[in-house]
Amino acid sequence: MSLLKGPVYLPLAFLSSASLLVSAISGMFLSFHYFYNQPLLSVLQLEAQVPLGCLLRNIHYFSSQIALISLFLHLLESIYKKFYLLKGKIAWFFLVLSFFILLFITFTGYLLRGDEVGELAGNIAENLLLSLPFLGEWINRIFLAISQIGLSRVYHWHIFLSFFLIFGLFIWHIKIKALLRWERIFYFLGVIIPVFFIQFPLKPFQGLIARGPWFFVGAQEMLKFLPPQLVFFWLLLPFILLQSYSFYPFKGINIFILLYLIIYIFFSILFFL
Q: Where do transmembrane segments lie in this chain (predicted)?
């Protein structure tokens, strides 16, 4: 059964799919000029020497952010309108999993920039994993291992999961023919056109504040008040809550999710105060 039923369900799903496709295509072109052993130098040379390099990097960055945000809203819409009741447990599991895969892809994209945002985010993430007993070092060795081998593993995960998500999306979730219709071209234009007017420079807030990715600052602020093990569990909690809609939709789960969002947004705002 298709996950797309009814007109109210289409916009966010198509926007996320179109943004992800634009991000993947622009990323393929960028990969020809990127070397993970010299990340920041690669990005600087890309912007300064490669024709349309700066534009491509901005398209890749902006489309990734739009894909992540629209997919998150797509999940919230599915919960609010109870579309998850139409799906089986496996279908809902992979839909939720796709959001967290995209979240990890977007996070690794920040690491691969090699600027102060990427370095800070990588250091925090690696130290957070290493603080976990028993499995922390093993998980870090599989997914990051930045202090041991640099960004090599991060880069390969970024590429592999991007293709995995793209293929899974257009094989299982939505038909590519349904997306590539003339009446839906505005989804692509809405991702590409703003980049001609908005620039996304490296080292945002340079000289003012050192921070990781915008969706990571809440956890960054939490680490000032809470032990890293508790922060790590807090970051995993949304996956557990969202999956419970399919396996065990206990009463009041919407209140738990709303409370989670309020708390995390509060810590994110607190970071900038």
A: 12-36, 92-112, 154-173, 185-202, 222-241, 253-272
3-class DSSP assignment, residue 265 = helix
- CATH code, domain carrying 65: 1.20.810.10
Number of domains in the chain: 1
* pTM of the full structure: 0.89
16 lies in which domain range? 9-200+207-215
Return the minimum-mean-pLDDT range out of 89-98, 130-139, 188-197, 218-227: 89-98
In this structure, is residue 99 part of a structural domain?
Answer: yes
> Residue 42: which of 150, 138, 129, 139 has the closest Cα?
150
Phi (first) and psi of residue 16, to 5 degrees: -65, -40
Side-chain half-sphere CA neighbours of 97 within 13 A: 13
CA dihedral 14, 71, 18, 118 (to 10 degrees): 170
